[in-house]
Design goal:
With about 90 residues, this protein is mainly alpha-helical. It has helices at about 5-20, 30-35, 40-45, 50-55, 65-75. The protein has one domain: lambda repressor-like DNA-binding domains (434 Repressor (Amino-terminal Domain), Orthogonal Bundle), CATH 1.10.260.40. The chain has five helices and no strands.
Length: about 90
């Protein structure tokens, strides 16, 4: 029987399970690391808020296609470098 005191444990486990199943669609965080750049540097160059870049890096939110091209231009990379291949 589930009681209220244990409910938070089940909710926490459920949320962790959901977050583990999150799809990784972009490689922005990886490319930033490869280039030795920070989220703040990218945010400043794109004139967006740092939390926005953070959400892109954690795949909680995806940049628009236009913004992805801007990211590629700023980091001097091919836009395809930022995408996770669909051929898995």
């Amino acid at each position: 029987m589930l009681n209220i005191s244990n409910l938070h444990i089940y909710i926490f486990a459920f949320i962790q399970t959901l977050s583990m199943k999150k799809k990784v669609l972009n490689r922005i965080k990886a490319v930033l690391a490869e280039e030795g750049k920070t989220n703040k540097e990218l945010a400043d160059q794109l004139k967006v808020a740092e939390p926005t870049v953070s959400r892109w890096c954690t795949n909680k939110q995806q940049p628009s296609l236009e913004m992805l091209y801007d990211i590629a231009k700023v980091l001097k990379r091919d836009v395809r470098d930022f995408l996770v291949s669909s051929n898995k």
